[in-house]
Specification:
heterodimer; A: seven-stranded mixed β-sheet; 11 strands; 49% strand; B: mainly beta; four-stranded antiparallel β-sheet; 9 strands
Chain lengths: 116, 111
């Protein structure tokens, strides 16, 4: 597609439920990233995929968070047993080759998650 | 990655050029300067990036000083839709995808 596509754009869930957030990167982009941004705060890196493997998962805040990528395309971020502190916008991004500094990272519009 | 310093806020009259400065005095030779902007409740939008030379695209121009210690993002004819927070970041190395946006500059375009 023309840009990074994320769904759902908004999700309200009850505390303790699981949620899945989907990301469709720019066509042909092999690198894919997930970030989190709490209201009024900066970006928090979560995970980096190169192809279908995740060489850097260092930003995942707990074992309730997991992500997978299949077919070097779509990625899913799963949050189990959601907590109120998980409320944030979850941003997916992609870049053409890898995460090195010469490759521009393009963001999607984000999935707003509210845990009530 | 080198630290960047930007003014907290700026105003610009609609139709005029907006010049947004960024200091990155500790930048090293292999570090790129990137600019993004974020309009409230939207994902960050890539604007432009450069290494040493000045760059121009359909959105903006990027002027990097010869010593590379500072740069200026120029929006040639600001519109109301350019009102946003603008982030200047410096990236280098293998882990440079762990983007860190500072406070940025809140640009207000005034009719």
């Amino acid at each position: 597609g023309a840009g990074v596509s994320q769904s759902p754009s908004n999700k309200v869930t009850e505390k303790g439920k699981d949620v899945e957030l989907r990301c469709d990167p720019i066509s042909g982009h092999t690198a894919l990233y997930w970030y989190r941004q709490r209201l009024g705060q900066g970006l928090e890196f979560l995970i980096y995929f190169q192809g279908n493997s995740a060489p850097d998962k260092s930003g995942l805040p707990s074992d309730r968070f997991s992500a997978e990528r299949t077919g070097e395309s779509v990625s899913t971020l799963t949050i189990q047993r959601t907590q109120q502190e998980d409320s944030a916008v979850y941003l997916c991004a992609s870049s053409g080759r890898d995460g090195s500094s010469g490759n521009t990272i393009y963001f999607g519009e984000g999935s707003w998650l509210t845990v009530v | 990655d080198a630290k960047t310093t930007q003014p907290t806020s700026m105003d610009c009259a609609e139709g005029r050029a907006a010049n947004l400065p960024c200091n990155h005095s500790t930048i090293s030779g292999n570090e790129y300067v990137y600019w993004y902007r974020q309009i409230h409740s939207q994902g960050p939008q890539y604007i432009i990036h450069g290494l040493k030379n000045n760059e121009t695209n359909e959105m903006a121009s990027l002027i990097i000083t010869e010593d590379r210690k500072s740069s200026t993002l120029i929006l040639p004819h600001a519109t109301l839709r350019d009102t946003a927070v603008y982030y200047c970041i410096v990236r280098s190395g293998a882990g440079s995808y762990q983007l860190t946006f500072g406070k940025g500059t809140k640009l207000s375009v005034i009719p």
